[in-house]
Amino acid sequence: MYKAITPLHDTKSGGLRVEQEVVTSYPQVAVVRVPTPWVQSDSDITVLRHLEKMGCRLVNRPQAILNCVNKFWTFQELAGHGVPLPDTFSYEDGTDEP
Fold it and tell me: A single Gene Ontology molecular function, please (predicted)?
């Protein structure tokens, strides 16, 4: 079940607000599923980084999610690990329409 999670701006508490309830203790492990093909907002990654900083082990870490969202970053990661890739060409016509 999806729950709305937002970071608190009060840095002293180190907490999150989950469904309007403040939470300051975290699970040891969290399985992360972020809608693809894009991250919905900066708060998605902010919450994940916060959980990580609070000691929660994440399955699908924030940087891995960002690498998968950006195909050029994915290409760089694969090439950096020696995975053979075809010559690739990228094009953008300046519009946001498909």
Answer: N-acetyl-L-aspartate-L-glutamate ligase activity
Instruction: Please report, for the domain that includes residue 75, its CATH number.
Output: 3.40.50
User: CB-side exposure of 45: number of CA atoms within 13 Å?
Assistant: 12
pTM given for the model: 0.56
Q: Residue 14 is which amino acid?
A: G
Domain of residue 13 covers: 5-80
Cβ atoms of residues 38 and 65 within 8 Å = no
- The residue that leads in pLDDT, 2 or 68, is 68
Q: What is the pLDDT of residues 20-30, one digit of tens each?
A: 777 777 778 87
Q: Is 58 a domain residue?
A: yes
Q: Evaluate whether residue 97 is within a structural domain.
A: no
